[in-house]
Write a structure and sequence with these properties.
single chain, MetI-like fold, two-stranded antiparallel ribbon
C-alpha cells in the first residue's frame, strides 16, 4: 500500500505538467520537425509543386547571390551591433549607476526607445534619413547648408543606418540589464580598493569588469539571437534595399516563404539559421561556464 502511494506521488508532478508539455510540443517541436521535413521538398505553392528534392534546396541556397548577400550582411549586422552593445552598453550602465539628482527619472526614460515597436522605429527612421525632409539631414544642413545625401539608397550608408537604429532601440535595455549586474557589487569593495590606493581605472578593470563579465557574456546570448532573427526593422525601414543589400537572413526567409511562397527553399534557410543559432548558444554557454568567468 505504501509503495503504491509513493509511486502515485512520483507520477503526480508529471501528470500536472503534462498539458503544458503537450502544448509546448505542439507549438515548438512539431513546427521544427515540419520545417526540417519541408526543407527536403521542392514546395512552390504558386507552381503547385510538391516534390522530394533531397539536399537541392541547401545546395541552391549557398549558390544563390541574394542569400549570400543576406548572410554576409547578417554577419556584419550581428558583429557590429553586438560590439557597440557591449562597449556603449557598459558605459551607459556605469553612467546610470552614478548617484545624481534625477537618477530614477533618467533610468525610466532611457527605456523609451526599447519600448517602441520595431516597426514604428523603422518607419520613423525611414522618415528621419530622408534627404528632402528628414531629421538627420536637417540637422546637418544647420552646419552645412548645401548638404544633400540619400542615406537609404546607397549600400554602405543604408547598412550603417539600419545598424544605428537597431543600436538606438535596444542599447538602453542592454544597459539596464548590465546595470542590474552592477547593483550586486558592494560599495565596500570599492572603498577598500580606494584605501589601498587604487585609481578609478584600476577599480573598473580589476573589480567592475571581472565581476560583471559573466553576466554581460550571458546577456550576449539572447541579444545575439535577436539580431540573427531580426526582421521587422528591416521590413519597415528599407524593405531589404537598396537591392538586397540590407536584407537580413530572417527577412530573406520571410520573403521566400510568404511573398514567393517557396516553402521548401525557405524551410532550408530556416534550418540553417536554426543550426547557427544552436551552435552559437552552445558555444556561448560553454564560454560563460569556463574558468575565465569565475570570480
Amino acid at each position: 500500500m505504501y509503495k503504491s502511494k509513493s509511486k502515485a506521488m512520483l507520477l503526480l508532478p508529471w501528470l500536472l505538467v503534462l498539458p503544458v508539455v503537450i502544448l509546448r510540443a505542439f507549438t515548438t517541436v512539431y513546427p521544427i520537425i515540419t520545417t526540417v521535413t519541408d526543407s527536403f521538398f521542392d514546395i512552390r505553392l504558386l507552381a503547385g509543386k510538391n516534390e522530394f528534392c533531397g539536399f537541392s534546396n541547401y545546395v541552391k541556397m549557398f549558390r544563390d547571390p541574394k542569400v549570400l548577400i543576406s548572410i554576409s550582411f547578417t554577419v556584419i549586422f550581428v558583429l557590429v551591433s553586438m560590439f557597440f552593445h557591449l562597449l556603449l552598453g557598459v558605459l551607459l550602465a556605469l553612467a546610470l549607476n552614478m548617484k545624481f539628482k534625477g537618477q530614477r527619472f533618467l533610468r525610466t526614460i532611457v527605456l523609451i526607445p526599447w519600448a517602441m515597436p520595431s516597426v514604428v522605429a523603422g518607419m520613423a527612421a525611414k522618415w528621419a534619413f530622408n534627404n528632402d525632409y528628414g531629421l538627420i539631414n536637417d540637422l546637418i544642413r544647420r552646419i552645412i547648408p548645401s548638404f544633400n545625401y540619400n542615406w537609404l539608397i546607397y549600400r554602405g550608408s543604408a547598412r550603417a543606418a539600419v545598424i544605428a537604429v537597431d543600436l538606438w532601440k535596444d542599447l538602453p535595455f542592454f544597459a539596464i540589464l548590465v546595470l542590474s549586474n552592477l547593483q550586486f557589487i558592494s560599495s565596500d569593495i570599492y572603498e577598500a580598493a580606494k584605501v589601498d590606493g587604487a585609481s578609478t581605472w584600476q577599480s573598473f578593470t580589476q573589480i567592475t569588469l571581472p565581476l560583471i563579465a559573466k553576466g554581460v557574456a550571458t546577456l550576449c546570448i539572447p541579444f545575439t539571437l535577436w539580431r540573427l532573427t531580426s526582421f521587422d526593422l528591416v521590413y519597415s525601414m528599407t524593405s531589404g534595399g537598396p537591392g538586397e543589400d540590407t536584407a537580413l537572413i530572417a527577412y530573406r526567409i520571410t520573403t521566400e516563404a510568404f511573398t514567393n511562397l517557396n516553402i521548401g527553399y525557405a524551410s532550408a534557410m530556416a534550418v540553417v539559421l536554426f543550426l547557427i543559432m544552436l551552435a552559437f548558444s552552445l558555444l556561448n554557454m560553454k564560454l560563460t561556464n569556463s574558468k575565465k568567468f569565475e570570480t
